[in-house]
Amino acid sequence: MPKINNIVLVHGGFVDGAGWRGVYDILKKAGFNVSVVQNSTESLAGDVATTREVIDAQDGPVILVGHSYGGAVITEAGTDPKVSGLVYVTAFAPDKGESVNSLIANPVPGYDPPPILPPADGHLMLDKAKFAKAFAADVDPETAGFMADAQVPWGVDALAGVVTEPAWKSKPSWYLQVRDDKMIPPPAQEFMSKRAGATVVEVPGSHAIYVSNPAAVADVVRQAASGVEMAQA
């Protein structure tokens, strides 16, 4: 089994790939070849196609990493033969026939729903005034404010996109559970990670853990790369 040197990072809704910079820097310094997907988040099918283009451009096996909605993207795109392992960063991990919509249809009791504004022209946004508390509570205020003002409209079609064949059923997976997440409640994370049979790492932090604690995310990615190498040696 060749050494796993390729990491592909997939962002979630309301943001773009720039938030991965801290994780990218750590992994690059560790010697990995890191690619960041820039998805339009207009439709799941479109984002899967874009992600597969990046996977196909790699020169060997890939660890595919998804945050939040990016978890749905890697669940569908991860069946690509080049993908050797999946890393979910407080992410959705749908089963066959599920979508982000179906996973959030029944809110977890005791947790406030995310401050998502009503759809406008087929897109969703978070309330800017509540963005920091809900999405990025442990990110420095200036950065959290910038993230709120730089939101990418999330297409309602992307949330409705249904997974056809979940990659976690055939590929090893890791899941970074975040205890203080206000977007995907911890019980939902626990349900999805257990169902996927993922190796779980739990840390304190907000939904934007990849921004606030990139070292924790990079550690899980390194665990995944070494874990796959050991299993296939």
TrEMBL record:
<dbReference type="GO" id="GO:0016787">
    <property type="term" value="F:hydrolase activity"/>
</dbReference>
<dbReference type="InterPro" id="IPR029058">
    <property type="entry name" value="AB_hydrolase_fold"/>
</dbReference>
<keyword id="KW-0378">Hydrolase</keyword>
<dbReference type="InterPro" id="IPR052897">
    <property type="entry name" value="Sec-Metab_Biosynth_Hydrolase"/>
</dbReference>
<protein>
    <submittedName>
        <fullName>Alpha/beta hydrolase</fullName>
    </submittedName>
</protein>
<dbReference type="Pfam" id="PF12697">
    <property type="entry name" value="Abhydrolase_6"/>
</dbReference>
<dbReference type="InterPro" id="IPR000073">
    <property type="entry name" value="AB_hydrolase_1"/>
</dbReference>
<feature type="domain" description="AB hydrolase-1">
    <location>
        <begin position="7"/>
        <end position="220"/>
    </location>
</feature>
